[in-house]
Amino acid sequence: MSQDTKRLLAILTAQPVVPVVAVDSAAQGVLLARALIAGGIGSIEVTLRTPAGLEAIAAIAAEVPEMVCGAGTILTPKQFEQAEKAGAEFIVSPGATVEILDAARNSDVPLLPGSATPSEMMAMLQEGYEVLKFFPAEQVGGAALLKSIAPVIPQIKFCPTGGISMKNVGDYLKLPNVLCVGGSWLAPKDKVAAGDWDAISALAAEASGLRDAA
Ligand code: 3PG
């Protein structure tokens, strides 16, 4: 097992849900990270879907060192490099391209590449990836698809994301090939914008207790 795989396993098994967030400023990212930590969530994926994503990653890495901060929605090698420079501890991509895999090969920061079909999963396994994102989970077949993959490609463990909420998270967490799920429901846009950090800590606390309930 590669060092990158070991590192990803450590990050993704530390809590049942990794929040996928988009923030409007570095300061907002820091406050959000603190609220999630208060609710027992110790890793976060800050997406580059907003212009503030990179500076938020840098600010969280500097000011909330107890939070394992990853970068999400990485589509290009340039973004990979920028996220690494900002201090991202893991990189998440919705899929995988030759260019992204090359960038990962030249970096010490582990990549969690996205996959949605058996062929994509087999291709990633061939590249040495045993931990994958499964995206967009609900839209491509959900927990039922992952369940049918488990006996066929048992080497691969997944972090499914896309359309997951408290309503269906249990269907995923009970599968043998699911390490954790990703989701934006822990950081709803309206609550982040309003600075309702207590509500976000409460959502995080509910999610961090899920493994015991599953
Ligand atoms: C992701 O990037 O992983 C997803 O967009 C998160 O999906 P969600 O917003 O449906 O939770």
Automatic annotation (TrEMBL):
Top-level taxon: Bacteria
Protein name according to UniProt: 2-dehydro-3-deoxy-phosphogluconate aldolase
Enzyme nomenclature, EC number: 4.1.2.14
Molecular functions per Gene Ontology: 2-dehydro-3-deoxy-phosphogluconate aldolase activity
Keywords from the UniProt entry: Carbohydrate metabolism, Lyase, Schiff base
Binding partners and assembly: Homotrimer.
A Pfam family of this chain: Aldolase
Keyword presence, Heme: no
Matching InterPro entries: Aldlse_KDPG_KHG, Aldolase_TIM, KDPG/KHG_AS_1, KDPG/KHG_AS_2
Listed SUPFAM superfamilies: Aldolase
Involved pathway(s): Carbohydrate acid metabolism; 2-dehydro-3-deoxy-D-gluconate degradation; D-glyceraldehyde 3-phosphate and pyruvate from 2-dehydro-3-deoxy-D-gluconate: step 2/2
Catalytic reactions on record: 2-dehydro-3-deoxy-6-phospho-D-gluconate = D-glyceraldehyde 3-phosphate + pyruvate
Statement: the UniProt record of this protein carries the keyword Lyase: yes
Similarity remark: Belongs to the KHG/KDPG aldolase family.
